[in-house]
Amino acid sequence: MLGYTSRFFNALSISMEEHPPLTGGTLVLATLSLSLGAFMQVLDSTIANVAIPTIAGDIGVSPSQGTWVITSFAVANAIALPLTGWLAQRYGEVRVFVLSTLGFLLASWLCALSSSLEFLVFARVLQGAAAGPMFPLAQSLMLTIYPPRQRGLAIAISMMVITVAPILGPLLGGWITEHISWNWIFYINLPVGLFSILITWQLLKNRESTTRQLPIDYIGLGLLMLGIGCLQVLLDKGNELDWFDSDLIIILAVLSAIALSTLLVWELTDRHPIVDLTLFADRNFAVGVSAISLGYMTFLGGVVVFPLWLQTNMGYTAFWAGVVSAPIGLLPVMLTPAIGKNLEKLNLRIVISLAFAVFALTFWWQSRFADNADLAAVALPRLVQGIGLAGFFAPLTTVLTSRIPPHRMPNAMGLFNFCRVLAGSIGTSLAVTLWDHRTIYHHQRLTEAVNLANPQLAGNLSLLESFGISGQSAYALIDRLLGREAVTLATNDTFWVGGWLFFGLIALIWLARPPFASRGSPPPMSD
């Protein structure tokens, strides 16, 4: 452990001598440029979702074909994320961030100009691939421009991006699609990205990280592309194709399992792996990544199901569903910086446990929704859930990076964000599948009660007949009402399961080993 501590401080002292922290207005401007670049990238992972029906109509394809606009971005992004560390070591963190952002802008411009599905999917693949390193490197660079004592604040600011952007994406995408044009979902990236590129390069070009000529692990790269590509398509299309009743899903599952298991063995034995899996040998990194990935998986499942219920059952438009979902981001914006400033003073395991407890309670609260719930009733638990969100991302990121030396930070951030994004895709697929299956289950159970021997049914039929609704029309109306109730019950079931998952995560975080020192504080000398 003494050897580890010595290497840690040698790397840190060299880094601090070469690139001292920024101060004053320069620090604020650099923070803004990095945050906007990262925010733009995370926003684009969700902003197009609500516009798919409009995009599909404009380019003359079905909505199901239009979902490839989402899948193509997700596949390319998932493949590129774990490559971040290798790219940063080979070409430098600042250079890779700037070039990735430039590529993202060019791809966004191509997306906006698209007039066919094939070209739009091609542009989205380019956009997703360019987007991969942007957020992890924004996080890593944020840690280098802040002094060690403010590392918690740097983490908090960077993590606010993935707190707010997934919520704001559907809201902004719905408004732009409804009031302007879907093309502007992509055009709005241009001024934001140009600002990020110009300011970041101007301020940080002389703070480039040390590079070295690493050989390309072609076998690892090929296995990564095959395994993650197949897995991401499987997750995105599984529910639509009825999972393993589809030959395509079976083929994708087999290819993914073979490629990823081979990749695991190859990367752990190769001298220059494309993905540094040895990071998981660090206990805090393994526990932190597991907790944040499982938590994000559960959280994103709720983020997806909640607006679906509002639009399916409650008559909300996509825009208003986004408005009702948005309160979850209010409290984190206010609380996260305060928590970030005091991360070193707080017992992070207690903070994270309380955050998971708030998530569990608010998920169980949402499992009691009713069809007649008003706007305040559905928005209030989302607002309270923001307390949990504020104590979730920044503290967990501090835990998982607590023993990672500076020179391995890009690898750690890339791998961590890859696990988070992949877990989010799994959570989305599982939540929608559970929601669909429970809807069918509850509809069947409710329909069983609809028979003439049921006195309540006879009374309802008589009431409908008094309003001039009889025969098949009456039964069709009752079936619609049963279907609406089934969807609400399925939504409640989904949130109920999510609440228990969050409750179980409380035990996981106590496996992490304190103290969770910042860069600049010594890691523990012994266990």
Please characterize this protein's 3D structure:
With 527 residues, the chain is mainly alpha-helical. It has 3 domains: 25-214, Growth Hormone, Chain: A (Up-down Bundle); 217-273; 281-527, MFS general substrate transporter like domains (Growth Hormone, Chain: A). The chain has 23 helices and no strands. Mean pLDDT is 81; it is low at 1-17 and 519-527.
Number of helices: 23
Write down the overall mean pLDDT: 81
The domain tally reads 3
* Shape-level CATH architecture of the largest domain: Up-down Bundle
Look at the helices and sheets and give the structural class.
mainly alpha
Shape: globular
Q: Return Rg in Å.
A: 24 Å
Biggest sheet architecture: none
Q: Give the total of beta strands.
A: 0
CATH superfamily of the largest domain: MFS general substrate transporter like domains
Q: What is the CATH C-level name of the largest domain?
A: Mainly Alpha
Query: In percent, how helical is the residue content?
Result: over 70%
Task: Write down the oligomeric state.
Answer: single chain
Distance between the termini: 9 Å
Helix-strand string: HHHHHHHHHHHHHHHHHHHHHHH
